[in-house]
Amino acid sequence: MLPKSSQELIFLNFRTKGIPEEKIFNEVSPGLWKQLEKYGSVSSLPHTYSVDVGITIKGTKEEVEKNTREVRSIIHQSALLPHIWFEGLDTLEEVIIREAQQKNIRFAFAESCTGGLCSNRITNFSGASSVFWGSVVSYDNSIKENILGVSPQTIITYGAVSIETAQEMAQGARTKLGVDIVISLTGIAGPGGGSPEKPVGTVCMGIAGPKGLAAFKYEFKGDREALKLRFSQVGLFHLLDCIRDC
User: Fold this and answer.
1) pLDDT > 60? residue 2
2) 214: closest CA among 171, 178, 159?
């Protein structure tokens, strides 16, 4: 057995998004866990709308370096790769701030159902002021209309929780705040307010950026607090994708 002084240890962590833990090793990459076990101890840790896949590698310096290269090669050739958004332990907020700084991108939010949670999460980290310009918490429809410029007819026709409203919120905030990217969120966090067409957990997100407008609709499960966190997490993932696409 090698003396402790001659052994090294490294922990590789691959952060994935948008795929449940049970599907990663059963459907997406069914043989991946066994492949990785050849090189060290494998673990998976679920978070909100994301899962960390980790592997602890031990051995001599040469063994650790060799096994690290081989593990990365396996991951990069696996079906899991499109779901990986970061390698390491940095938070989503830290990655957003750093990559926005690197590209000199300014961003903002137009939040309704999340009540400023996206903004709060970003401003919990040092350096946010260099890229985060602000937010409009348009909880009431009058703020959506009078501050963000959402057409009253859009809300009448499609509803406050709709792709159309989300897009107009994002575009209005981008114009008002003078930033490169805006992510908007409008949804139903419950426990009341849902309908058969738009149940509790429905959220629409708008993106206004240099390449134009886009919007997405999701349906999630959970109580009010869990839904707000999930909404904000997906909104931040959209922000990161947009920054990387610039």
Assistant:
1) no
2) 171
